[in-house]
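I'll show a sample.
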Amino acid sequence: MLKDFSRRFIHPVQRSIRSKLIITMVLLAVLPIIAITALAAENSRTSMESEVIDTNLSNMKWTGIYLGEQFSQLNNLIYTIQVNPALSEYLGDQEEDNLSSRLAEQRKIFEILNSVYYSAGNHVVGISLYVHETGTLFTINSMQNDVQTLSAPPVVYNDLARQHKDFIIDTSSDDPEKFRLIRSINRFENQERLGAISLEIRWSAFNQTLELLGGMDKQGVLIVGSDGKTMYTPLVESVLSGEAAEHLAALSPGPGYFRTSQAYVFYSTVDPIGLRLVKVIPKRDIDQSAINTMTYGLLVGAVSAALSVLLAVIVAWRTARPIVKLAKSMRGIDLIDERKELPARSGRTDEIGLLENNLHDMAVRIRSHIQNEYKINLEKRTAELKALQSQINPHFLQNTLQLIGGMIYARKPEESYEIIRSLSEMFRYIVREPDHLASLQAELNHLQHYMHIQQKRFSGRLHYTLEVEGEVLQSELPKLSLQPIVENAFAHGLEFRQEDWKLEVSIKRSGAGVLIRIRDNGAGMNPERLSKLRSKLAAGTDGHWASGKSIGLINVAARIRMYFGPMYGISISSEQGKGTDVCIRIPWESGGWQIDDQSAFGG
């Protein structure tokens, strides 16, 4: 995946100065815009953050004071009951057994409670008074106005004693919209707990005060206990995270703020009851201003970037155009074919013009030098090939003449004539003009005459087969490519084998080319000799043009590469004692099966 991306996008840019110049200018135009936009957004966010912090710290301080005053007023209601002489008389006369007196005192207690209840307002929904010595509980609310004798103290009374507090706020009611403010009744002389007074109050009594903080519909406003536990929030969905609750519980009293991972938390202590007023502002609300600034900045930046890109492309294109033109001119120079004109001079007088003039003059001199060297080498190699073609292996010629001499006396004249005709056709093919390619059909016909003679020489011992698959005979290859390789198989492989000889030639299509395989069961080669031969074959046209006094394997490989390129040539594999396998690969051209005298290619 990464390699494909690099091939498609990175490499083309690396090879193009125009692309590099365009990208550089675009980055120079766009990056400052992005940096300025980001800086403006951060400045806006910082400014908004500072303003929000200062405003909310001030609001929290004053709202906490107002809330404390409201709780003080509720406390004063309790004090009104506590300091009433009738309550003192009732608590001091608990040992008297006069029933009528007790009833009269209870009526006075109800009168006190009723007076406070109806004067407290709609937010106080109930008042309770508990006397510990007699277990008496007075209760007044909209649905109840009675007195009860309890067998055990109320739970909240025990909570006062257990926590060693004079007052607590109880939110254990089933109705989350209400709470109870409970204060103990203590004897003045020794602070002995005589009972407790409880006011049942609606939390909504504080909503008007909490609205002073602003944003209650979007941001969380809460009243929490000293342990960080939420006691009241105007919005049900406002929740204090566990991280914030733990932090609050560890803080000392007083106003302040802290940050969590998701929000800013402002707090203030509500005196005299020790509760905390909390406001939670999500970070996204503060960041919204920065987002708006960034949105407008990105819009302006996008327009500016688009104009910058357009300007950068135009400037880069015009600046790089002469360089690209010069590069294309260099790519299009043909230093060998003099029929192709060299790039014309543009007439520029700057540095590009100087490069163009020098390139043109250099190309003229290099072309002249290459053409001279090419002509000399071509004439030399053509002369070498003609000299080799004019020869035939003297051992093969001698053995063939002896074969003909023997057949004149022992065989029919027709058989002798076939050998003479094959030898004559070989000479005729060899002495033809060598400068052009030959068809695979012509090469196989030449190989046919050679194998016809060899089969007569080694009749009964040589087993030769030829297989051709597909229409491949019109494909071309350098002249005298097949017969020299087969001749090498006899000279360096089969002649050293005592058993029967096998020689197989197979030709078939292979992708966009033709694969010719010549395989023998001769002596083969050891690994060291095979490695050296493969190195020479890999040298291609840089190897020796001729090898000894005959057209050798390296010569054939070099000519195939010279004509068709490095994709084609010869490969070889061999195993000592088992034979050699030579593969020739050439380009493919369509054609039919038209080999002459097919009867000569028998098994």
